[in-house]
Write a sequence for this structure.
């Protein structure tokens, strides 16, 4: 039970996307569930940051750092829209 | 969505430690002077980055303990076998630099809108830190929004901000539950927060309260699902998980 939630990825995501993202809505590409990023399940213990769908546990996003670059894999996300915007 | 590789935008800044305050035997508040700080909202956190001489880096998130408008302060619980918290609580001295990035977050925040409904704040251990920022903000604003804080700690000696919480004025009820050790004659709650304690202590669902639940991950899971079980709509239960850490 050392999993975190999307709040814990707020700094990293803001660094990557340039805006506050914990209030963004993501839609899972696997099960179609829409959730606030803050309510996703996040794991930071491994080599990268991993975000999973809170309903089906599909991997939504993986961020791996290489020097000053972030490699962002979002294939598990169908859409991601910052608060107040629609996909 | 396709993958991308991009350069970072939210930047790290160097702050200076101005004071260290003992809160409990294992918890310290660290006051910082951050010249490039853009201000924060109640409930937000920041990221701390430590860099070893060989370049190895560790990053952790810490909630901001101070209210909006006040200098940045963190309150950190020492985990004996942890990588970062023993450094912050034992090694850091006034005048030292600390690299930080923030403020971070927009979900687990209270914007000071007191036209709204009561607040149900529920903390496990160091999960009280962002809720303390909310309480101070409410007090600075002279807000009259009714608040209940249910705070789970191992013992009375483990209660962080106890003097401050005991002085909270009208409209704020502070309810402790002590999970491991209770003083002689303790008439308050004992044991872990569960559905029956919440049914007694939490605002009834028809009051349309907003709940903020923060602490170790298992604590947050139990409390959030109990509140929903009692009739709180899931959208009115805001959660922030600190991981499998520390005591509640
Ligand atoms: C949004 C957010 C806000 C937070 N705010 C606060 C705050 O205000 N105050 C506060 O004190 N903390 C806060 N935390 C927790 C904080 O970020 C750190 O997790 C905490 O200080 C422990 O860090 P550490 O480096 O000392 O311990 P770590 O080295 O991260 O270890 C933590 C614990 O996990 C165990 N552990 C280590 N590695 C593993 C592994 N691979 N598998 C299983 N267990 C392992 C360790 O033995 C230890 O008990 C917050 C967390 C988040 C996400
Ligand atoms: Zn899913």
């Amino acid at each position: 039970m050392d999993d975190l939630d999307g709040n814990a990825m707020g700094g990293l995501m803001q660094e990557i996307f340039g805006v506050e993202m914990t209030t963004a809505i993501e839609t899972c590409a696997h099960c179609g569930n829409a959730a606030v990023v803050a309510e996703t399940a996040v794991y930071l213990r491994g080599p990268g940051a991993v975000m999973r769908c809170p309903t089906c546990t599909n991997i939504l996003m993986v961020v791996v750092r290489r020097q000053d670059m972030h490699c962002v894999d979002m294939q598990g996300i169908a859409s991601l829209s910052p608060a107040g915007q629609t996909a | 969505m396709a993958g991308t590789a991009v350069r970072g935008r939210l930047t790290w800044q160097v702050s200076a430690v101005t004071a260290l305050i003992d809160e409990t035997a294992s918890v310290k508040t660290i006051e910082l002077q951050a010249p490039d700080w853009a201000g924060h909202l109640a409930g937000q956190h920041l990221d701390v980055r430590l860099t070893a001489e060989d370049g190895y880096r560790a990053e952790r998130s810490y909630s901001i303990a101070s209210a909006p408008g006040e200098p940045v302060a963190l309150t950190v619980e020492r985990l004996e076998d942890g990588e970062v918290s023993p450094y912050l609580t034992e090694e850091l001295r006034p005048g030292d630099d600390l690299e930080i990035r923030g403020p971070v977050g927009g979900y687990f925040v209270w914007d000071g809108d007191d036209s709204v409904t009561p607040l149900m704040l529920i903390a496990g251990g160091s999960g009280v830190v962002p809720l303390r920022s909310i309480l101070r903000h409410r007090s600075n604003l002279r807000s009259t929004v009714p608040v209940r804080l249910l705070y789970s700690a191992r013992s009375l000696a483990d209660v962080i901000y106890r003097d401050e919480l005991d002085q909270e004025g009208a409209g704020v009820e502070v309810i402790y539950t002590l999970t491991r050790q209770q003083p002689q004659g303790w008439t308050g709650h004992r044991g872990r927060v569960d559905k029956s304690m919440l049914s007694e202590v939490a605002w009834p669902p028809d009051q349309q309260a907003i709940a903020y639940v923060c602490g170790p991950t298992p604590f947050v899971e139990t409390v959030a699902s109990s509140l929903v079980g009692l009739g709180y709509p899931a959208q009115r239960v805001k959660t922030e998980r600190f991981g499998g850490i520390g005591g509640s």
